[in-house]
Design a protein that fits this description.
This protein is of the alpha+beta class. Helices cover 35% and strands 29% of the residues. Helix 1 packs antiparallel against helix 2 (32-80).
């Protein structure tokens, strides 16, 4: 069974209307005036049918588009979404998260990347900032945690093998009052448990 497209249906209906209006019928005993009145009424009915069909098909198309948009949004949410990282306030530093997303690549497992800026808001230098990110369940129980340092003190978080490879010793450059530095967490999502909450704890260290 062949189904007409929307445009083809409208075109055929218009042709039928034109044929109805231009078709010549020999006047009957009822009279030419009555015959033309019937033709006009029939044409109006056909036009009304075309209009109603157009509205119905247009409405169906809008519903299909809305349904597809909702489906794609749900897929994106399931693929990329995760609980947003919440920063625990600190009296010594201000943390602003500029990136909090799951990064995917063809060559490596997906990574949760949380990055941003940390600013010293005290009147004295801060040696470095230890950043702890924790993944918790709905009851607040910590399921997984990781620690990094601001970029100027990144070597503090390196293990012995990396230090030997880079031939460096742990060091840091203090954050002066009002100065800022970057930080970045990059955590493979396959190693993360099913979590409901993410919190970031900044700890300003003064030595």
């Amino acid at each position: 069974m062949k189904f007409w497209s929307f445009d083809e249906f409208i075109c055929r209906a218009r042709v039928l209307t034109n044929i109805t209006l231009t078709f010549r019928i020999t006047p009957t005993k009822i009279g030419q005036r009555v015959t033309m009145k019937k033709l006009t009424t029939f044409a109006a009915i056909v036009g009304l049918g075309v209009g109603l069909a157009s509205m119905a098909l247009a409405g169906a198309q809008v519903q299909l588009q809305d349904s597809e948009t909702a489906r794609q949004a749900a897929l994106r949410k399931a693929y990329y979404d995760h609980p947003a990282t919440q920063v625990v306030p600190s009296k010594d530093v201000k943390v602003v998260i500029t990136k909090d997303s799951i990064m995917r690549s063809c060559c490596m497992p997906p990574n949760l990347v949380v990055a941003g800026d940390v600013t010293n808001i005290t009147p004295h230098p801060v040696s470095y900032v230890r950043m702890v990110i924790s993944f918790e369940d709905v009851k607040g129980k910590i399921l997984h945690a990781e620690t990094i340092y601001n970029m100027k003190a990144a070597s503090l978080g390196e293990d012995e093998d990396v230090r030997r490879l880079l031939n460096e010793t742990p060091h840091f450059d203090p954050l002066l009052p009002g100065s800022s530095d970057r930080f970045t967490f990059s955590i493979p999502t396959p190693m993360l448990p099913n979590f409901a909450k993410v919190e970031l704890y900044p700890d300003a260290i003064v030595q």
